[in-house]
Amino acid sequence: MDSAAVAMEIPHHDAPVSLKKSRTAALEAMEDIVYGSVAGVVGKYIEYPFDTVKVRLQSQPDNQPLRYKGPIDCFRQSFQAEGFRGLYRGISAPLVGAALENSSLFFFERIGRAAVYQSGWTPQGQELSLSALWFTGAFSGFFTSYVLTPVELVKCKIQAPAGADGSGASQQLRPLSVVRDIYRHQGIRGFWHGQMGTLIRESGGCAAWFGSKETVTKMFNVLNARSAKTQGERDALVGKPLPLWQQALAGASGGVSYNFLFFPADTIKSRMQTAAIGDAALNRSFWQEGAAVWRQHGLRGLYRGCGITCLRSAPSSAFIFIVFDGLKRHFPLQ
């Protein structure tokens, strides 16, 4: 048999299958980026006024009496001074940040899942354990923190009242002017000021964000299966999405866990990022800033603004997961 005949008998399945697999992986990655961005923007519009209040509570100076008595008082003073639009001041940068953050989170979480399978932690084809899902969340948060820190730095400087003395004099900062100011005084490295706080918050917080959501989802799946009266009803539940209210509770649990467990890291980060250019506090390390808060206000100071943050994160995270999962389920990219 000549070489031409041999060549004709060789099956040609490998190339199309490989191409199909790579195309599928590329489309799934694109879904993570596009749908994660959409979900992030929706969630940011819901949570942003609460986030503004949180940053203002966290960034109150140590050497002055507290300007705000609590979240409600901060809402009241902010609304009286700036109106409703003031609570959305500087939202343009956070919208970009929300799109980047959530697309990065879902994208890197997928990479984390692939790493778990490739490492042999979980055999190919098996469902990931809860411990593995918590790990993929931490994996995702670690890498996302480097994307997020510059955006949060700009956001915090815009949200915080002007004046390091807490006077709160109105100053309409714009994202581009803040970016120029940071670069002029601190260079490129200045955009990652507060990175340690973001890294701790995102790595630990995202482990809780994804992990809690998946834990509650599995709990509901078990409860729904137990409540089914016949085998046919149980079979019908396989592959079927949870009822909307259960999806919302699962997503909300992730948001509350994310914020509560690692809130002190976020407090320290916000204080570092709202320090004025030229302020001595700008040169403090993450641990030095944390020690200063502890000496001045104790544990309560590290959790200042936590209540309002958990309150806003519950509906925001619920919407993010519902929108993301819904888009992937109903509008898969072909």
UniProtKB/TrEMBL annotation:
Its main location: mitochondrion. It comes from the Eukaryota. GO terms for molecular function: L-ornithine transmembrane transporter activity. It holds the Pfam family Mito_carr. GO terms for biological process: mitochondrial L-ornithine transmembrane transport. It is found in: Mitochondrion membrane. It is a multi-pass membrane protein. One of its GO terms (cellular component) is mitochondrial membrane. Solcar repeats lie at residues 27-115, 128-219, 242-330. Keywords: Membrane, Mitochondrion, Mitochondrion inner membrane, Repeat, Transmembrane, Transmembrane helix, Transport. This is Amino-acid transporter arg-13.
